[in-house]
Amino acid sequence: xxxxxxxxTLGAIRSAIAAFADRRRSRATKxxxxxxxxxECASILDIMGVTLxxxxxxxxxxxxxxxxxxxxxxxxxxxxxxxxxxxxxKNRFMSRTCVTCAHRRRCHSHMAxxxxxxxxxxxxxxxxxxxxxxxxxxxx
Length: 140
Ligand code: SF4
Known about the structure:
The chain has helices at 2-34, 38-48, 52-58, 68-75, 83-91, 94-99, 104-112, 116-119, 127-135. It has one domain. α4 (68-75) packs across α7 (104-112). The N and C termini lie far apart (49 Å). It has 140 residues and is mainly alpha-helical. It has 9 helices and no strands. Bound molecules: iron/sulfur cluster.
C-alpha cells in the first residue's frame, strides 16, 4: 500500500516536471518565433494557414514546440521533405491541423513508444492526408 502511494507520488512529480519543461520549451519557441519579426512571422503563419491568435492558442497545447507533423510522417514512412508531401501539407493545411490538434499528448505518447504507426488511424485528424500520400508513394 505504502509502496503504491510512493510510486504514484513519484509518477505525479515526474509528470509535473515534464509538463513544466514542456511549457518552458513552448515559451522559448514562441519567443524565438516572434523575434523573427512581423513580416517573417506573417509569412510562416500564412504557409501554415494559422492566424496569430490561433498560433498563440496553439502554443498553450502540449508539445507545442515540437514538429509533430514531420515526426508523424517519418513514423509511418512518408518523406516530409518531398515536394508532394510539402505541397499537400500546404494545400490541405496539414500543419494547421497538427499545431491545433486536440490529440497532441496522445500522439506524443505513441511517438515516444515508437508505436504511432499502429495507432494513429484511431485518432489522427491528418490520417486521410497521410493515406493519400502513402498511396502516391511518398515514402522515405
Ligand atoms: S495526431 Fe494530431 S498532432 Fe499527431 S500527427 Fe496527427 S494531427 Fe498531428
